[in-house]
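To the wet lab folks,

You asked to see what we're planning to order before we commit. Fair enough. Below is the target structure as tokens, and below that is the sequence we designed to fit it. If anything looks off to you, flag it before the synthesis order goes out.
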């Protein structure tokens, strides 16, 4: 199959629409179920590249949760603690396979953003992963293969319309890539730079100790950023993105956005949140929304009379700012990655409030010395890798 006709492009008025191989070769994918759309394929191909790079860099199964051509979450298959199993809503699924564990982490990082995601898996989708995916609201999946039983499970989603794409893992695109904007063709070399530990040797801070787990987290951050709409930053902890800030014009706004997501990830692990008295009849998405409101600035949206009764069996106590800060102060060992240099030290100041210990960025700003000084002040270890990772 050389081309695939699509229902429409980014919007229903954008017709006709298709994907095709301009050189006449066959598409490196098979649609096993459903009818993926234009944006689905954008998410799928970006997600596949991300997880492929992660698998190559770490040797571990990897998964990504994409929404609107940026990852809401990405992760490798580090084991899950009992607390993480609970906040990711997988504590009732028994022992998860490595690829299922990777997706549980990718989906669990920012569950609200992952609602209706497109999934990318580095390895064959097994039954364990399919059972997890079946219970989440998602648009589709791309993977290098599917166990027969797993495929049947996925085909049951969305009343049989769930998009399932199989990609040839041996496919390598051409070195030059093209796209059109306003009828004008752009051409550039594909960003095929290999991100590995060899790029993590230029430690510029007073503290130099960079343990293996921090190096792995730096790679997760950089590879996630490689496929995230710029400007972008990524907070990583224990092999998974816990906060992605994408598409902001100001870098510190990226950091604030991603840091807030990272803070929410930790706040969800607080016993006060873990023990919220949810009604048994509410849906998973409603529970996610209630948690997000409860730990956020607009907590009265879910705690006011007439509202709390919709999701809780009894009215929870307010999660005060003092309680939140006390819990957040326990955060440590977080990695902050940036797709381009930090122009000011304000991003480092904000990262410090969310437990950042390790920083990786290209460097090259005229204020690098101020950024390094800020890292030294907070006892951080920073690598300047010299590689910009803009993605548009």
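Sequence we intend to order:
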């Amino acid at each position: 199959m050389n081309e695939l006709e699509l229902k429409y492009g980014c919007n229903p008025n954008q017709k006709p629409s298709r994907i095709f191989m301009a050189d006449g070769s066959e598409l490196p994918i098979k649609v096993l179920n459903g009818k993926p759309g234009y944006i689905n394929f954008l998410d799928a191909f970006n997600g596949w590249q991300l997880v492929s790079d992660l698998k190559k860099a770490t040797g571990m199964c990897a998964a990504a949760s994409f929404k609107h051509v940026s990852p809401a979450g990405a992760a490798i298959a580090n084991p899950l603690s009992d607390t993480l199993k609970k906040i990711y809503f997988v504590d009732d699924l028994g022992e998860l396979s490595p690829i299922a564990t990777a997706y549980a982490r990718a989906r669990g990082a920012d569950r609200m953003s992952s609602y209706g995601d497109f999934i990318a898996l580095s390895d064959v989708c097994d039954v364990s992963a399919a059972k997890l995916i079946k219970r989440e609201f998602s648009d589709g999946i791309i993977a290098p293969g599917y166990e027969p039983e797993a495929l049947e499970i996925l085909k049951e989603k969305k009343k049989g319309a769930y998009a399932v794409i199989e990609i040839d893992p041996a496919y390598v695109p051409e070195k030059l890539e093209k796209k059109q904007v306003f009828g004008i063709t752009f051409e550039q070399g594909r960003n095929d730079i290999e991100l590995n530990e060899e790029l993590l040797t230029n430690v510029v801070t007073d503290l130099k100790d960079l343990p293996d787990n921090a190096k792995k987290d730096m790679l997760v951050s950089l590879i996630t950023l490689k496929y995230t709409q710029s400007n972008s930053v990524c907070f990583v902890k224990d092999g998974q993105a816990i906060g992605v800030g994408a598409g902001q014009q100001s870098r510190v706004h990226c950091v604030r956005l991603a840091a807030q997501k990272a803070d929410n990830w930790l706040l969800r692990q607080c016993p006060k949140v873990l023990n919220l008295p949810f009604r048994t009849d509410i849906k998973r998405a409603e529970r996610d929304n209630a948690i997000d409101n409860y730990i956020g600035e607009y907590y009265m949206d879910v705690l006011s009379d007439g509202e709390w009764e919709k999701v809780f069996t009894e009215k929870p106590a307010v999660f005060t700012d003092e309680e939140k800060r006390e819990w957040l102060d326990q955060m440590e060992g977080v990695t902050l990655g940036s797709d381009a240099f930090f122009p000011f030290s304000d991003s480092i100041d904000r990262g410090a409030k969310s437990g950042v210990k390790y920083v990786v960025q290209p460097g090259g700003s005229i204020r690098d010395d101020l950024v390094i000084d800020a890292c030294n002040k907070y006892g951080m270890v920073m690598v300047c890798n010299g590689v910009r990772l803009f993605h548009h």
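Structural context that might help your review: The two ends are 28 Å apart (CA to CA). The chain has three domains: 3-167, 176-267+328-384, 271-318.

Thanks,
Computational group
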